[in-house]
Structure formats: structure tokens, C-alpha cells
Amino acid sequence: MKVYLASWFSSKDERNKQAEELRAAGIAVTSRWLEETAPPNSKLGDFDESFLRATAQMDKEDIQACTVFVLFTVDPNNGPCHRRGGRHWETGYAEGLGKPITIVGPRENIFHSLPFVAQFDTWEEAKKYLISIA
To answer: Burial of 68 by CB count in 10 Å (0-12 exposed, 13-18 middle, 19+ buried)?
Structure first.
């Protein structure tokens, strides 16, 4: 099984730890954005247009390569604001490709209530599920 981890860029270090946990369980992680050398607090304006295009294309390819798409969410009423929203675009793209979607955290919008979306409150619950279906 191959998993894509979608999250806000500033959570990159935490997602890398979770990617390692999945790899240790024999699950491949296709999220190359986790290997980017840019600091977690980078802004879009820190990069030129060609880098942004190439990175977006890489993310699309990584989503295409996964068998399960995993989205990390925050409480929309109390969580920090993640303005860029790339993870939501990625989720729609994954759904359009027919990828099963797993959410770690609360449902942030109405689309997270669709029947093909598996939702877990914690990473440990989601990880156990992913290992069980691998």
C-alpha cells in the first residue's frame, strides 16, 4: 500500500515522524513534500514561479501514485488558520481520482461527511486502520 500524507507545510516535521512509523509497518509514503528543504514556516512569496509549478506537479504525481490519501485536519472553530489551503485542493484531487480518503482529526467541512471518507480522532487510530488495510 502507498499513502499520501496531506497537511499544512509547517507540520512537516511531525508528518515526517508519522511517515517513518508507516514505513516501519511496511507502508510506502508517496509525499515527497516531506523531503523539501524549505523551512516549515516558508511563505509562497519565498519561492519563484517555476519552483511553485514544479512542486505542485510533484504533489499531483505523488497523489496519483498513492492508494490511500490521508488528510490531517484541525478544528475549524478553534484551530490555527492554515490560509493556503493546498491540502484541501489535494483532497479534492484525490477524490476525483477515486482514492479512498482517511481523515486524522475533526471534520472541517461538509465533504468530510461523505460515506467513502474514514475519519479518526487520533493518529494512533488512523495508523492502526491503515496497517489493518495494508
So the answer is: buried
